[in-house]
Amino acid sequence: MTASVKLERVLYIEDEPDIRLVAEIALHQVGGLNVITCSSGEEGLSLINDFMPQLIILDVMMPGMDGPQILCKLRDMPEFKATPVVFITAKVQADEVEQFKRLGAADVISKPFNPMTLADDVRAIWAACDE
Amino acid sequence: MSDSELNEKPSVDAQLAALQTEYIANLYDRVLPVLSLWQDYIASNYSPELLRDVYRKMHAIAGTSSILNVKPIDSLSNEVQIKIQSVLQAADIDAALIAEIAMILNEILDVAKSGDISAPPINLNA
C-alpha cells in the first residue's frame, strides 16, 4: 500500500492552535511534507476529499468529535477506509497504545513530540504500514 | 505554503522561540477561565461534567506547555490532571483532594500571572 509510494500529503487535526503551528513547522518546514492542519474533526472531514491525505494525524482529546470518533467516521468513508491514522496524545501508557491500535490506529505518537524528528517518526510509521 | 514563503520565513529556531514567548505572554488569559470553571464546579456541588471540562482544559494547557517546553506549567498541569482523575474515579468527594487541586490551580495562575517562567529552548536536535 505504501512502501513504494512516497508520503507527501498529511492531514493533522488538533484543536490547540499553538500545537498546530509547531506541527506545521515540524512536518512542512523541517520535514518537507505537504501538510494541512485543522482545528476540528468537522473541519477536517469537510476538506478531506479535496486534499486526499495519504496519512492522517489525530489528537485524541478534542472538544466535539474526539480522535477515536473521527477515526470511526473515516472508516465509514470508502476512500479513507485504509488510510493510516496516527493518534497523538499526552503521556501515553502502553495499554492505551494497544487500545488505540485495536481501534484501528496505525500507531501512537506521544506529546511532547520533538519538532525536529516528528516528520521522520511519521515517515517511519508510513513505511511500517506496508510491512 | 509556497517555496518563496518558506524562504522568507525566519529560521525554525526563531519561529519556535517566538511561539514559546507568545504562549507564555498569553498564559494568564488561558488559565483564568479554568479557574472560573473550577469555581463553577465547586458552586455546582461537584458536578462531574464540569470537572471533566476542567480536566479537558488542563489537558490542553498541559499538552501545549509540554511541546513548547514551558516546564513549570507542564508539571503543575499534569499534577492537576492526575488529581482530577482521582476525584472522577472516587465514589465520594475527598475534601482534601479538592483543596489540593484548588491550591495547584492557584499556583498555576500565580506562575502565569508573574510571567517569570523558565522555559528552555524547544528541544531542537535533542
CATH architecture of chain A: 3-Layer(aba) Sandwich
CATH class of chain B: Mainly Alpha
* Unreliable stretches covering 5 or more consecutive residues of chain A: none
Task: Tell me the name of the CATH class of chain A.
Answer: Alpha Beta
Instruction: Give the overall average pLDDT of chain A.
Output: 92
- Overall structural domain count of chain B: 1
Task: Spell the H/E element sequence of chain A.
Answer: EHEHEHEHEH
Output the radius of gyration of chain A.
Answer: 13 Å
Structural class of chain A comes to alpha/beta
Kindly state the percentage of residues in helix of chain A: 40-55%
Keywords (chain B): Phosphoprotein
InterPro entries (chain B): Sig_transdc_His_kin_Hpt_dom
GO biological process, one term (chain B): phosphorelay signal transduction system
Domain HPt (chain B): 16-119
Description:
The complex is a heterodimer of chains A (131) and B (126). Chain A is of the alpha/beta class. Chain A has five helices and five strands. Chain A has one domain: Rossmann fold. In chain A, strand 3 (55-59), helix 3 and strand 4 (85-90) form a beta-alpha-beta unit. Chain A is globular, with a radius of gyration of 13 Å. The N and C termini of chain A lie close together (9 Å). The model of chain A has no long low-confidence stretch (mean pLDDT 92). In chain B, helix 2 (12-43) runs antiparallel to helix 3 (48-67), helix 3 (48-67) runs antiparallel to helix 4 (71-89) and helix 4 runs antiparallel to helix 5. Chain B has a single domain (13-114), classed as Up-down Bundle (Four Helix Bundle (Hemerythrin (Met), subunit A)), CATH 1.20.120. Chain B is built from five helices and no strands. The longest helix of chain B is centred in the N-terminal third of the chain and has 32 residues, at 12-43. The A-B interface holds A 15-16, 18-19, 21-22, 24-25, 28-30, 61, 63, 90-91, 111-116 and B 1, 6, 9, 12, 15-16, 19, 23, 56, 59-60, 62-64, 66-69, 74, 78, 122-126. Chain B: Keywords: Phosphoprotein. Chain B: Residues 16-119 form the HPt domain. Chain B: The modification Phosphohistidine is found at residue 59. Chain B: This is HPt domain-containing protein. Chain B: One of its GO terms (biological process) is phosphorelay signal transduction system.
